[in-house]
Design a protein that fits this description.
Strand order of the largest sheet: 2-3-1-4
Helix content: 25-40%
CATH topology of one domain: Alpha-Beta Plaits
Largest sheet: 4 strands, antiparallel
Low-confidence stretches: none
Length: about 120
C-alpha cells in the first residue's frame, strides 16, 4: 500500500454493467423480436457479437482484449478472406446492457481496424 492509501480510502469501483447512452434502434428492434418469440428477457442470454477484420492478427488481438473483459471469443476465416471474431457474453438483454456491449465492441474494432456487425442471441425459455 502506498502512503495515499493510509489517508484516502481506496474505493474499488467496478465499471457499470449498463450504459446510460441512448440505445441503438437496431438493438431495440432485436430485443422486441426476442420478446415476440417468447424469450424470458429477465434471464441472462448468451449474446454473440460479430466483429470483422481484414487480418487474422487484428482479430486475435481484439479477441484478447475482449477476453480480458469477460467475453468468450472465437476467430474464424470467412470465404471473402476476412476474419470474423465472435465474442460471447452472458447478459440480461436490456437496452443499457446491449448499448454497453456495442460500445465495448466498437471501441475494440476502432483500435484494431475492424467493423462491428451487430449481435444475436437465442431465445431463452
Amino acid at each position: 500500500m502506498d502512503w495515499r492509501g493510509i489517508f484516502f480510502p481506496r474505493i474499488n469501483r467496478k465499471p457499470p454493467r449498463e450504459s446510460r447512452n441512448p440505445p441503438n434502434e437496431q438493438d431495440l428492434e432485436r430485443i422486441e423480436e426476442l420478446r415476440e418469440q417468447g424469450s424470458r428477457l429477465n434471464l441472462p442470454h448468451p449474446v454473440r457479437a460479430f466483429l470483422v477484420f481484414d487480418a487474422e492478427r487484428s482479430a486475435r488481438g481484439a479477441g484478447d482484449l475482449l477476453g480480458k473483459e469477460g467475453f468468450g471469443c472465437t476467430v474464424r476465416s470467412a470465404p471473402d478472406g476476412s476474419w470474423v471474431l465472435t465474442a460471447i457474453a452472458h447478459v440480461v438483454p436490456t437496452p443499457g446492457a446491449l448499448t454497453k456491449l456495442r460500445e465495448q465492441c466498437e471501441a475494440v474494432t476502432a483500435a484494431h481496424g475492424g467493423a462491428y456487425r451487430g449481435w444475436d442471441a437465442p431465445v431463452v425459455y
